[in-house]
Amino acid sequence: MLFMKEQNPTKTVLYSIEHAIKEYRKISQKNIEKVVSDITVDQCLVLIILNENKNVSQIEIAKLIFKDNASITRIIELMVKKDYLIRETNALDKRKTKLEITDKGKKTIELLTPVIHLNRKTALDGLSLEEINMLDKILDKIITNCKTV
Amino acid sequence: MLFMKEQNPTKTVLYSIEHAIKEYRKISQKNIEKVVSDITVDQCLVLIILNENKNVSQIEIAKLIFKDNASITRIIELMVKKDYLIRETNALDKRKTKLEITDKGKKTIELLTPVIHLNRKTALDGLSLEEINMLDKILDKIITNCKTV
DNA sequence: TTTATATATTTGATATATCAAGTAAATTTA
DNA sequence: TAAATTTACTTGATATATCAAATATATAAA
């Protein structure tokens, strides 16, 4: 059994991690689409982060949701086009941008907050607090292992 | 504490899952690049799967590595261009393709197999068998939760 | 055996991932 | 203060993700 896991790339716990996050993203996107049709999971995350802290920079957003700066630039670009955000330059540091949530963005947050909570509840249904903490702890170890190489 | 986790999307265990798999993919790609410069993690997985079972269809490959059929089409396209694979139509079922690994592909597998094992070892370093099994079990629950909605 | 349906793959459109290189502003150093 | 370095963000190129629609072949039903 263990030998199998070693040989076949798709039978490693690392691929269960990949599998899990992909399934979670799928139902998340599906449930979000039921309520708001023109937004993605990632764009939704950007909204929520900005809603919690008006002054985060793009780099900070990138770090929070584990994305590349370039990706954030493009995600925000699309959100501005779709009237979720307004982008201006930060007067205090002109290298930075100042991101503001539009009314449409605010309404969207209200609509989607319960959906996101439901998604998490659904994904973690039946797991005990101990299991969730264990999961978190083990994943942190993996993250550290990968980073410190 | 728990309340925090509920509120901030980036403080949920689900984002630790995302974080972990992204870090793992990063070192994997880095280590692969040290040995073979023109191949990606995903392309490498396709090679290994084909090497283990000559007769898998594209759909089966897609399922094994949790990807869309369309993605597999394009991944294979690139691998054919780079002389890792030869694509023909399957004589028994002309809807399907017959994928063959080239000599370059075979050499690449030999070069990269130890790298992939090292990547896994690195990521899981310091984790006990119990922890790995626990992780697998919990992730399976999450996968099931997300699928059965 | 036609017709209908299912299956395997492809293609198009759009979003995101990643790296490298570029730009502009801010900060540090000489 | 001028030059060098760092920082924040953008842009280009290429790979992958995802859905929907299209194609071609195979299988089932009438």
User: What oligomeric assembly is this protein in?
Assistant: homodimer
Helix content of chain A: 55-70%
Main sheet: strands, sense, barrel of chain A: 2 strands, antiparallel
Shape of chain A: globular
Strand share of the residues of chain A? 5-15%
Under CATH, the homologous superfamily of chain A reads: Winged helix-like DNA-binding domain superfamily/Winged helix DNA-binding domain
Write the CATH fold name of chain A: Arc Repressor Mutant, subunit A
Instruction: Name the average pLDDT of chain A.
Output: 91
What is the strand tally of chain A?
A: 2
What is the overall number of helices of chain A? 7
Domain module count of chain A: 1
CATH architectural label of chain A: Orthogonal Bundle
Radius of gyration of chain A: 18 Å
Spans of chain A with pLDDT under 50 lasting ≥5 residues? 1-7
Largest interface: A-B, 54 and 54 residues
Helix/strand-derived class of chain A? mainly alpha
**Strand line-up across the major sheet of chain A:** 1-2
CATH class categorisation of chain A:
Mainly Alpha
Order of helices and strands of chain A: HHHHHEEHH
Distance between the termini of chain A: 28 Å
In short:
Two copies of one chain form a homodimer. Chain A is mostly helical. Chain A is built from seven helices and two strands; from the N terminus they run αααααββαα.
Please write out the topology:
The structure is a homodimer of 149-residue chains.
Chain A: H1 2-7, H2 13-35, H3 41-52, H4 58-64, H5 69-81, E1 85-89, E2 97-101, H6 103-123, H7 129-147
Antiparallel strand pairs in A: 1-2
The structure holds a DNA duplex (30 and 30 nucleotides).
